Amino acid sequence: MTSETDHLTVVTHPLVQHKLTLMREEETSTAKFRQLLREISQLLAYEVTRNLEMTSKTIKTPMCEMEAPLLDGKKLALISILRAGNGLLDGILELVPAARVGFVGLYRDEETLQPVQYYFKVPENLEDRLVIAVDPMLATGNSSVAAIDLLKQAGATNIRFLCLLAAPEGVARMKEAHPDVPIITASLDEKLNEQGYIVPGLGDAGDRMFGTK
Ligand SMILES: O=P(O)(O)OC[C@H]1O[C@H](OP(=O)(O)OP(=O)(O)O)[C@H](O)[C@@H]1O
Ligand SMILES: O=c1cc[nH]c(=O)[nH]1
Ligand SMILES: [Mg+2]
């Protein structure tokens, strides 16, 4: 269940929306927040992996032989935008354990709202893989645009961006900078506040996930 434009897909499935409500609530504990993010990541994975290329193999069921479809997980590169991206990464990796994994370390300077890079390590031959970049929050879009710039410099050509919440400002920025990168999200929220936080949002995803505040 989705609502789609050519650039943005909002996953409107009731299970996703229910779990997102629980995550947004201020009183939700760190442990519960992390568990919910893992569960939602698996539901969103269903949508973001739609249309993945399949191979096939001849198998024998108890009844007969058949040509059966298979995913080639190695063709998939999951890229976590640290830190908060790891909350989405873990759940998706459980579903596609053969996927290759990379990390882009970025944090947002609280004054300038510009991303500061501190790490970059991605699988080889990104040009041959479907690259799914994951970060729960798309706010100004500065971090995701920077991460995707780096992935393209590393050779990626087929990229999707998966997040939990998106602000209209971030979606517009991504569409301008990377119109070839579809965005899949659980919610398009209302706006950003003066500090660049998503409203109504859920607060700081990294802090809520790791209990750092
Ligand atoms: O769209 P933007 O305005 O760039 O904001 C979104 C970024 O901010 C958060 O990360 P943060 O900088 O808090 O780092 P963290 O994951 O280490 O907490 C979030 O996980 C995104 O990466
Ligand atoms: O609302 C926001 C914006 C950026 N990063 C977050 O974690 N939350
Ligand atoms: Mg944070």
UniProtKB/TrEMBL annotation:
Its EC number is 2.4.2.9. GO terms for cellular component: cytoplasm. It catalyses: UMP + diphosphate = 5-phospho-alpha-D-ribose 1-diphosphate + uracil. It comes from the Bacteria. SUPFAM superfamilies: PRTase-like (SSF53271). Residues 10-212 form the Phosphoribosyltransferase domain. Keywords: Allosteric enzyme, Glycosyltransferase, GTP-binding, Magnesium, Nucleotide-binding, Transferase. GO terms for molecular function: GTP binding; magnesium ion binding; uracil phosphoribosyltransferase activity. Transmembrane segments: none annotated. This is Uracil phosphoribosyltransferase. It comes from Pseudooceanicola algae. The gene is upp.
